[in-house]
Amino acid sequence: MIVFDGVNKYFGDFHVLKEIDLTINKGEVVVVIGPSGSGKSTLLRCINRLETISGGSLSINGLNVADKKTDINKLRRNIGMVFQHFYLYPHKTVLENIMLAPRKVLGQSEAEAKKIALKYLEKVGIGDKANSFPSQLSGGQQQRVAIARGLAMGPEIMLFDEPTSALDPEMIGEVLDVMKALAHEGMTMVVVTHEMGFAREVADRIVFMDEGKILEEATPAEFYANPREERARLFLSRILNH
Amino acid sequence: MLDFSILTENLDMYLLGFKNTILSSLIALVASLILGILVAIMRIAPIKPLNWLGTAYVEFIRNIPLLIITFFFFLGLKLSGLYAGTLALTIYTSSFIAEAIRAGILSVPKGQMEAARSSGLSYGQAMRLVILPQAVKIVIPPLGNQFINLVKNSSILAVVAGLDLMYHGDLISSRTFVVFDVYIFVAAFYLILTIPLSIGVGYLEKRLAKSN
Ligand SMILES: Nc1ncnc2c1ncn2[C@@H]1O[C@H](COP(=O)(O)OP(=O)(O)OP(=O)(O)O)[C@@H](O)[C@H]1O
Ligand SMILES: [Mg+2]
C-alpha cells in the first residue's frame, strides 16, 4: 500500500507538489493524468525516491520512504519502473539487461536469472530477441524489454511514466496489451498516461493533477461521464478531440 | 645532412634516456589514470564535500605550470629529479584525465543512472556496471590525447636532472657542441613512443564506434 499524506515537494522555490493525499491499495491500478508540468512524473518519482519529498509523509507498506534509515535499495527491489524513453542499457544484450539487477541485487545465480529473464521475455512476447542489443529493436519491443526488466525483480508495485509517449502509433497497442495483462493479474500499478482507452479498461481510479495539486480522483466511469472540475473537463475535451 | 655518427657514438646515452622516459611515462600514465578516475568520481558522486574537494584539486592543479609542480617536489621536498618529475607529471596529468572522464560520465543520459538505481542497484554498482562502460567509449579519444601529452611533457624531467631522454640530449649536446642534429634524434625517439600511441587510439576509436 502506498500512502501520500500531505506531501509537498519543492524544486528550489518552485512548489511542484502541493499537499498531496493519495492512497493506492494493493492490486489497484491508478492512472495519473494532467497537463504538462503539473507534477505527474514528480509524483511518480517520489514513490521510489528518485525525488525526495520536502514535507508530509510517504510510506510504502508502512515503511517511511523519506526516512534516512530506510534501506532505499531494498525498497526499490519491490518497485519496478518503466520510463518514457525506456533507458535500456545499450552496451548489454536484452537478456543481460534483464538479468543485471536480479544477479547483482537479489544474488540470483546465472542459470536462475536467465530462466526468469526468458520467462518474462516470453510473457512480453519477444522471447526470440534475447540475444539482440537494444539498438536492434523497435521502440515497442524496447519498451516491452523494459517492462520485462522491471518484472524480473518480482516487484509488488510497477510505476509507468508515459510508457507509450515516445512510440510510433502502431507500436502503442503491443505495449498497452502487456500492461493490461499485468493489471488483470493483480499487479499494483501507478501509470502516468494519456491513453484513455487503457484507463477506461483497466484503471480502478483516475487521478487528475494540475499545478501540483490533485484536483480530482474518480473511477474512470465517473470521470469520463462527468468530471467535477472545470479544468479536468477542459483537459479531457482537449485530449479526446485531437 | 644529418650526422648519424652523433646517434651511433652516443647510442648508449640516448637509450638510457629513452628507457627512463618510457619508465617515467608508464608509471605516470597508470598512476594518473587511477588518480584521475578517483578525482572524477569525487566530482560526480552525490556527496557535496567530495565534489568541492575534487573541483578544488582539478582547478588548482591544471591552472599552474607543470614546472612549478615539479619544482615543488624537487626543491621543496628534495626528491630526486626522476621521482620529482614523475610525481609532478602524474599529478598534473591526473587533473586533465579527471576532466575527460567526468565529461564522459556526464554525457551518458541521466536516465541510465535512474533506471539502474530504480532497479535496486547501489550508486557504486550502477556506476561500475552501467555508466562507466558507456563512458569509456566517449573518453578514449581525449584520454589518448592526454597520454600523448604526457609523453611529451615528460621532458620536464630534464630541468631537474631527471635522467630522461631530453636530459641526455642536453648532455650530448653540451659535450659535442652540436645542437640541431642531437635534438633531431631526441625528437625521433619521442616519435617512436607517441606515433604508436596515436595510431592505437585511432584504432580503438574505430572499433568502439563500430560496436555501437
Ligand atoms: N529536477 C528539476 N528541477 C527543477 N524543476 C523541475 C525538475 N523536474 C521537474 N521540474 C519542474 O517541475 C514541474 C513538474 O514537472 P513534472 O515532470 O513532474 O511534470 P509532468 O506533469 O510529468 O509533465 P509532462 O507531462 O511534461 O511530463 C515542471 O514545471 C518542471 O519544469
Ligand atoms: Mg512527466
Overview of this structure, please?
- The complex is a heterodimer of chains A (242) and B (212).
- Chain A contains nine helices and ten strands.
- Chain A is an alpha/beta fold and 242 residues long.
- A six-stranded mixed β-sheet of chain A has the order 6-7-8-3-9-10, with helices on both faces.
- In chain A, helix 3 (94-104) runs parallel beside helix 5 (139-151).
- The two termini of chain A are 36 Å apart.
- The mean pLDDT of chain A is 95.
- Chain B is mostly helical.
- Chain B is 83% helix and 0% strand.
- Chain B is built from nine helices and no strands.
- In chain B, helix 2 runs antiparallel to helix 3, helix 5 (81-106) packs across helix 7 and helix 7 runs antiparallel to helix 9.
- The N and C termini of chain B lie far apart (49 Å).
- The model of chain B has no long low-confidence stretch (mean pLDDT 93).
- Bound molecules: adenosine-5'-triphosphate and magnesium ion.
